[in-house]
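fyi for ur records
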Amino acid sequence: MTPVESAPLGGAEHFGEAWPKLLQFADMIVREGEKRGLVGPRELERLWSRHILNSTAVLEFIPQGSRVGDVGSGAGFPGLVIAVCRPDCQVTLIDSMERRCEWLLDAIAELELTNVSVKLGRAEEFVGNYSADVVTSRAVAALKKLLPWTMPLLRKGGSMVALKGIRVDDEIDAAVAQLRKYRAEFADVHVVTPFGCDEETRVLVVKKK
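which gave:
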């Protein structure tokens, strides 16, 4: 049986009322994630550090009461984690695969979340009939590809908040033309070490004019 990474100590104190639901979500992933093709067997060994806690790195860049669209939600990282930790936000999970959307709906029901909905389809299909204050993503695509999918969903003055790897600066350099085309005011990289993690992660914030 694949070993499963333990939840961090102090989670209840740090996350408060969200903690029981994060534990419940982790348990769902352990029970069904591999079986439903959402995570690989080795991913359970770093379920908390690499996936759940890593997802919390975006939280400080989401203003209070935001409408959040999460593009390429997959197993729920970071979108479901945002919904659990930020009940003040209305979160829309967007994914193009039906089985992933079924999983997300099952998770929403089991976690009894009332601030989150699911859209089945590609992000570009919803331009014009959906807009958000913040659009999040994780491991979806390089910035050059990501901008055309996310920026049209943002209202004026909104922000794209993406979890990125160590080559994020190279991605920004390669996307200068797209940043200009989609009216980016700035693209800032923040280095964050989430609670319970030893490794830092990078959060890219692109502000729309």
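The chain has a mean pLDDT of 96. thats all i got for now
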